């Protein structure tokens, strides 16, 4: 076949397959003929050639491209199966473009070319013996990972070289550990100077620095270096001397555990997060399983048994086709049990990829053998992930199921967090692995895609339901202030009629006392005439119960939220007066709080009046005619 390349040269390609059966075929694979030279050399055209399709007009010796020795166009090659003793026929001859098939470098620089016992000049690709030999030689230490030449790139080759020199130095380091140090080097008294101590610390540090190097490599190279190192240091053992060093990594067994944990954590992370092919992951897993684990590390033997992302059960759970996490296949039961570290990694990745719904489905069913308590914390994030998926309504219900409600484990901060998310349909931009992180972030809050803020009614019902199941939220003053700020809107609400205020007492009481189920049922009629006022009174009624139950501190910020709706505060005093003793002590608490507050400008004049009136010793608590409303 002929083709022109630019205007300068003609490349004549021979079809390699044609020579399939003739290994000694002397046709070169590629010849380059420079056109200009050809013109100069001229040449007669044989008349007979004019009749052919392909006309040979010039003839010239071609420049020879690099080739394997067995392909040499100049020196004939004689193939044999596995002759390594001495060159067969003229196989030792080479042109200046002959390459050694085994070393993959110029034959002239091959040190084993005619070396008896490993004679490379006889090698060729049609012999299984020589092909294996080539693989071993080119793969080097990578062969033990069952990698093939097609897996190898420059990063892996680099990793192999680093691993090789690491192994040599590690052997030296370990043997000097085994020799121990004389105690005199530690400056102890002469009588015991002849004793030896064995300090693994330098070996530990050497391995650590190699793992640091691995961290900086390309993903696959890093995995190979980590596991390659582990294979070696796992073989180390501790030697105890008379004296034991207190430094943490002086003991080989303890240091090995720390190192292995580091390797496992890194490789697990790669298996979940990196873009590895399933084949490559299986090779890493198989390599790891072949380790000789000492008894104390046996429990880590399965640490790299991580489900791939294309695992049938995992995929069906993520897609919502399997909601049990259990799959039965030909009588075998597969349960979605994962190591906790792996759960965390998947949680991290799915958040990065904004696959929140899949993450929720996964967390609902996944089980762990270890760290059940920690798993609970991650599962408590499901409502947050539902929010991030844009479904605030479902998020709200998932906080308050009838059993084991995540809201029952709220801290006040977490309650305030969700209240803000529901009210604004915004959330901080961050990836989390437990609820506490939601509250301790500086991340900017951004609108949640497709989410609609919840209106007052569901917000209030949510807050009241949380107060029922979570005493931390019920008790906390800040939670009350924030909730009241939601219903005490900035603009003053119109004063409702006295009749409404009066009737509201019974309605609010019955709503709050209704303990059937965890839900809060608000009768429709209550919301028809004064809907906003009704919500305010409902929360105020709940606050009344809170104040009656125990001291509330600080109380001023809570009461301050009523400044635009003094009528509601009056309604609160009225409700509190059902328990005169408690009202008296509450007012005392308030006046103490006022005295200790220097920032008096913030205080409401109406509150001062009320408190001083009610706190005065001459006051008659039981006098119904001077009910609290009269004082405002
Ligand atoms: Zn050659
Ligand atoms: Zn060679």
Automatic annotation (TrEMBL):
InterPro entries on file: RPM1_Interactor
PANTHER family assigned to the protein according to its UniProt record, in alphabetical order: SARCOSINE DEHYDROGENASE-2C PROTEIN, ZGC:112980
This protein's name: Uncharacterized protein LOC115009603 isoform X1
